[in-house]
Specification:
The protein is mainly beta. The chain contains two helices and 18 strands. The two termini are about 30 Å apart.
Length: about 240
C-alpha cells in the first residue's frame, strides 16, 4: 500500500480578510519528488514552471539516454522522442502543461523534482474540485490538472460512459492494466490515479485492448513552499 503525503504552500497576494468579506488572490506553489523507474513511465506534471519546457521541468540528475515523448490524439501515435544528453540537454525541448501526460523512458531509476504553481483554476476553499471538460474521443494520455488522487471525473471532467476505458502502467513491474466501463461497473476495478500519474483514457465506443502499449509513475512526495502550509485532500463533488 502506497502512502502519499500532499502538502502545498499558498502564497497570498493582496490578502483582505474582514468580517464581511474573505476575498484574496493566491498562488499555490510547491514541489513533487517523483521516482521514475527503469523502463517506461506514464507521468504528468501538475505544476507550471517558468516556461513549461523539458529543459526547465527536469532538474539535474536526469540519466544519459532518458527519453520523453507525448501522445498525439489526432494521429493516435506518439510524437518523435526527445532524448536527453548530459552535455547538450534534450534533443527536442517539448512543452509539457497541465493535464498532459508524457511517456518517460529511463535507463535506470532516478528521482526528478517538479517545481511550480498549481493550476490557477483550482480553489482549495471551494471544498471540491471542478475539472475542465476534456473534449474529443479516442485514446488520450492524460493526468489530473491538480496534484490530488484522481478519479475518472477528476481527469476528464465528466462521469464515465459505456465503452470508456482507462489503461495504467505499474512502473516497477512494467505491466499494464486496462479497465472498461460497462453498465455502471468497471471490468477490472475503479481507476484512481496517484499524484503525477498519467494513464491512457480511451473515451470512445470502439475500444481495442491491443491498440495501446502501457507505462506508469510511482513513489512521490509533495512538499510546500510559501507562507502558509495547506493539506489538500480531495473531497467528493456534490451530487447533481
Amino acid at each position: 500500500m502506497k502512502l502519499l503525503h500532499v502538502v502545498l504552500g499558498s502564497l497570498f497576494v493582496g490578502s483582505c480578510f474582514t468580517v464581511h468579506s474573505q476575498v484574496f488572490s493566491q498562488n499555490i506553489v510547491g514541489y513533487i519528488n517523483l521516482e521514475l523507474y527503469a523502463g517506461n513511465n506514464w507521468v504528468g506534471n501538475p505544476l507550471a514552471s517558468s516556461d513549461d519546457t523539458l529543459a526547465t521541468i527536469f532538474q539535474a540528475g536526469v540519466p544519459e539516454g532518458t527519453s520523453f515523448t507525448e501522445w498525439n490524439p489526432a494521429t493516435q501515435l506518439y510524437l518523435p522522442s526527445s532524448v536527453y544528453d548530459t552535455t547538450t540537454g534534450w534533443s527536442i525541448n517539448y512543452s509539457w502543461g497541465y493535464g498532459q501526460g508524457g511517456l518517460v523512458n529511463a535507463p535506470v531509476n532516478f528521482i526528478n523534482t517538479f517545481v511550480g504553481t498549481v493550476w490557477p483554476g483550482f480553489d482549495p476553499t471551494a471544498g471540491f474540485f471542478v475539472p475542465p471538460l476534456v473534449m474529443g474521443s479516442g485514446a488520450q494520455l492524460l493526468t489530473c490538472m491538480v496534484p490530488i488522487e484522481a478519479t475518472f471525473y477528476d481527469v476528464t471532467g465528466r462521469d464515465p460512459q459505456n465503452g470508456d476505458s482507462v489503461t495504467t502502467l505499474d512502473g516497477p513491474s512494467q505491466t499494464s492494466t486496462t479497465t472498461v466501463f460497462e453498465n455502471g461497473l468497471w471490468s477490472d476495478g475503479t481507476p484512481l490515479l496517484t499524484v503525477s500519474q498519467a494513464a491512457i483514457f480511451n473515451t470512445g465506443y470502439n475500444f481495442d485492448s491491443n491498440a495501446i502499449p502501457a507505462p506508469e509513475p510511482a513513489v512521490l512526495e509533495l512538499a510546500g513552499l510559501g507562507l502558509l502550509a495547506l493539506s489538500i485532500r480531495r473531497k467528493f463533488r456534490p451530487a447533481a
